[in-house]
Amino acid sequence: MTTQHQAQRDDEIFDVVNERDEVIGQSTRREVHSRGLRHRAVHVLVFNVRGQVFLQKRSMAKDTAPGCWDSSCSGHLDAGEDYLPAAMRELIEEIGLKIAGPHLLTPVLHSEACPDTSNEFVWVYRLSSEGPFVLSPAEIERGEWFAPAAVTQAIAEKPEVYARSFRYLWTKLLAM
Predict the structure, then answer these.
(1) Helices (H), 11-122
(2) Which of 84, 118, 172, 173 is buried most, with the most CB atoms less than 10 Å from its CB?
(3) Do 141 and 80 touch, CB atoms closer than 8 A?
(4) What does pTM read for this prediction?
(5) Do you find a cis peptide bond into 137, omega within 30 degrees of 0?
(6) How many folded domains does the chain comprise?
(7) What CATH number does the domain containing 88 carry?
(8) 52: containing domain
(9) Distance between CA atoms of 176 and 171, rounded to whole angstroms?
(10) Which residues on adjacent β-strands are paired with residue 143?
(11) What's CA 139's distance to the chain center, in Å?
């Protein structure tokens, strides 16, 4: 990621929310992260017809969890944006997948903001798709399909190779 691109990302404006996920103001990405303010994010888990989940290996240029495995796509909500449109936007931006409509995304989990999510309220969505995917090199090193049981086992054996928020959300999904 170029220095200019990182500066643009640091200047992104996010909604700051209270403990009930209600907007109480706006601030830059840099400020939100440096002060640990509550904000919002989405994760999408894409499954194929064989029941495998597509995971991305984050670019080494990412400011958090570089080189770690993560959800199929994930990202912050922009100021004024709702969760579902953010999920559709992230699908396009990160894995180049444009879907026919929001009805294809199934909400599967809403997580409260906590240290494990970097103080993000998170909606996790499920999507069925075979791709094709066009991975954003600024965001993603590579992607692969995994059996869910293999993901669970790998997280137990080598948690450090998975993004912290992904590990937390995956565990919550398994408990449902």
Answers:
(1) 29-35, 83-95
(2) 118
(3) no
(4) 0.94
(5) no
(6) 1
(7) 3.90.79.10
(8) 3-174
(9) 9
(10) 56
(11) 11
